[in-house]
Amino acid sequence: MLPSHAADRLLSRIESAGAPVCVGLDPVAERMPAELRPAAGDAAAAAAVEAFSRGVLDAVAGVVPAVKVQAACFERHGPDGVAALARVLGHARAAGAFEVILDFKRGDIGISAEHYAASAQGPLPAGWTTVSAYLGTDGILPFVSGDRGAFALVRTSNPSGDALQSLRLADGRTVAEAVGDLVAAAGAATVGAAGFSNLGAVVGATKRADAAALRARMPAQVFLVPGFGAQGGCVDDVLPCFRGDGRGALVTASRSVIYAFGPGDRDWRACVRRAAEDLRTQVAAGLGARA
Question: Which CATH architecture describes the domain 6-290?
């Protein structure tokens, strides 16, 4: 039986899988296998995105402990895309093999935040969401409960994020460090038996220089670490995101896994699975070497 507490459940799945890795589902119709590329129209595109996503989920089941589904790739196709997103999330949860992260980066307060949080508990079922921390705790806490977790944006992997997140405040902290302190304080009430909070933090793999300082400020946060693989992050870049015991981060790769097939590959699902296995091997080896 898996724990009901979100962070405890995630740590349990990571332990069973053998490595703290996550496959990101960022499906784009133009990059799918030829057999799935749709005709014109949002309905056809949504159907193709759903079929591809289901194939990826089936391919990586039993390899990785978590999947992250990018809502924007579905929402761009209108109502058909949103319906496909709900079915893909349901398929991922029904597999029983993953922690499911709905990557929708919501940022609002009050009743709007409550409605967004409710959507991830019903119509768009996911155990975890991503949220913006830059409206303060009013925009975060509705997404966090005993069995639901959230990853708050703290230090993102995009280059232009430096223009805001690296700014120095009067007390010497960077903006990202101040947000990290806010997240650590907000998440203190939801720390589970494994020592981690249901409120985690997004810290990009391409921000290695900042990761160690943020880890010291957020010892109880699970770091969701995007930017590995196609965005340039490597094993050495992600290691500072982990605690000394080798726990506390979830490394996510998207394009390098889900598009690991070539035009001549007859079994694209097998290519995706091998890429997920390689991701797992790389990160596990890096953590083992550090230990």
Answer: Alpha-Beta Barrel (3.20)
